[in-house]
Design a protein that fits this description.
Helix content is 59%, strand content 0%. The chain contains eight helices and no strands. The chain starts with 18 loop residues before the first helix and ends in a 13-residue tail after the last helix.
Amino acid sequence: MTGPGGLPIAETPPVTTPREAAREAAERELSKPVYHENEPNLFTRILGKFFDWIDELFGSAAGATPGGTLGIIVIVLLVAVAVALLWWRLGTPERSPAGAGTLFGERDRTAAEHRAAAEAHAAAGRWTEAVQDRMRALVRSLEERTLLDPRPGRTADEAAAEAAAALPGHAEGLRAAARAFDDVTYGGRTADRAVYERLRDLDTAVERTRPVLSGPTGAGA
């Protein structure tokens, strides 16, 4: 190409932009909201990916399982039934080992007060609370009769084991009562009328039983 006077002129060199600067410029341009107005939000995208993963998982499992998708559904239902049966049979998993908690709270009540509270709970159908207060009444009664030494921090299992020495005829009932107390207090289980009535009858029987006291003659008091 020639210019005026026939002198050659150089062609205009193309405009070049360094690669890094071009990438940054493109990112700035694409980050403008106008390009993303119709895109799903982050939660929607994550949810979509999750369902895609579930679909792939079931697709892979269906190909490897006899009966395909129907076989997968049957297996899932069988597992759900098995879990439900175990839950029903064993109850709620224990949150702490049995007997790990103390028997009494901070408030110091007499055996009569605990019995009155237990009966009030039972009348209202609050069987769990009724069992708790009846067990406390039983142990407090043993302390009031000096068959147990008053001791803060005593657990239901410890009280039952210590009381069994003076009341051997009720040893099994005391152990069962301690287990019932622990189950409803620390094991997440729910008591019912039958559990409460057994504990109430035990409390009444223990109160009327003459203890076996150790001594030179080995005679009961």
